[in-house]
Prior knowledge:
Low-confidence stretches: none
Radius of gyration: 23 Å
Order of helices and strands: HHHHHHHHHHHHHHHHH
Strand content: under 5%
Shape: globular
Number of helices: 17
CATH class of the largest domain: Mainly Alpha
Helix content: over 70%
Amino acid sequence: MSQHTREEIVNSMPRTGFFGHPKGLFTLMITEFWERFSYYGMKAILVYYLYYSVKDGGFGLPDALALQIVSIYGAMIYMSGVVGAWLADRIIGTRKAILYGAILIMIGHILLSLPNNFTLLLVALLFIILGTGLLKPNISSNVGEIYEKNDPKVDAAFTLFVMSINLGAFISPLIVGWLQKNAGFHYGFAVAAVGMFFGLIIYVLRAKPTLGLSGLDIPNPITPEDKKKTITYVTVIVIAFVIYFLFAQLTGNLNLQSFMSLVTALGIGLPAVYFIMMFVSKKTTSEEKSRVAAYIPLFLASVVFWSIQEQGSTILAAFADKNTQLDLAKVTNGAINFVIPPAWFQSLNPLFIVTLAPLFAWLWVKLGRFNPPTVVKFSIALFLAGFSYVVMVYPLTHNGDALMNPAWLVLSYLLVTMAELCLSPTGLSVTTKLAPSAFASQMMSIWFLANTVAQLFNGQVLVKYYDTVNNATYFGNIGMVTIGLGIVLLIVSPFMKRFMKGIH
Length: 504
């Protein structure tokens, strides 16, 4: 199959119409807005849906199991992105990947909006996992494809694109959370389904006239030889899964916990395999291997950070619901008569990102030659993330059994968002810089898999720990350990700098 050149793709689209950008940018932005609207809206109430009693519209699961399921679900979302990117790159192209992904996501949300059935819930989550894996990585890559390689507007385009993501993530918990509290869970899930329906319709109607040829080509078509290898690998994997499930059935271990253990093994094994491939490959030079070695501590640091950040939709979400004073009349001495839906706290992270990102971008430029190197920024991120938990200890130890003032929880979300702004953009940048030339895409996959490992760690370790200790002990210990790891990273930074071979 012949491939279109970048020039042909760019010339096939209307060039202006959205703040001087191609019209296709608005198509991708609005599609991604609604996808993120549906995803974050659903995720804001998912943990409550699992542990709320049946009479309150939930399933009445134990808190720890509910938190575990949400963590494993989040991990599988990031794992599916690796498969979705491969399918688009080798078999179906980004246009079809986005379309199929949107359809699967919408089906998942529709299933969630139906009456309570736990099997149906798991099937719905599977649809959303598969759909997000197809849509999320490929819609981002499609943004870059609608511009010339050296077009100065590309950075601005991605800034607008990220703004659409955060706008959807900010608005959806407010709407879905209010509906869940005042009308019921299924109304909240239905709104998420409607949101993805809007995104799908807009994409179907606008893709052809505004995106031209972009996303239609298969970037790296699978060859007959690769196809045979892929079929062999998939067959082996399927057989291994069948054997595993048969063995689990015969031994009486075919349950949710055994499945989560399997996902954990895969999630941890995948980045490990990628690292081993880079070290043993003849395509990797000795200098590149040194840089990969320097990247491993950064990968582990990002796992620690994302572990805390992702608890915003699990442990902190449960804490907001059960241990935070949500009745503002009791906080403001009757000045404000309003009860905060607990899901609203999920809007804080995107709100702070939108407001603080320009400030951090300005700060790094303003610092000039005093701009901290990558490892130091990672250390600062761990300090801030750890401190976001440590600040919770004071109100928890001084208020007795009283519900905590919500301002403390807002402060915690603010600190961890500041940490994210130190680590996330820097991590993306350093990943591309330290990647071996033959493994650039795999290195980027490793960066996103750090989030997978973090959520698996949450689900298998931290959720269980949280269930066995009081809140002050949990937040204090996890916060101090994170700060301690930030100090360790700072101490070893001179050694890492030598291994990075000129990359800062």
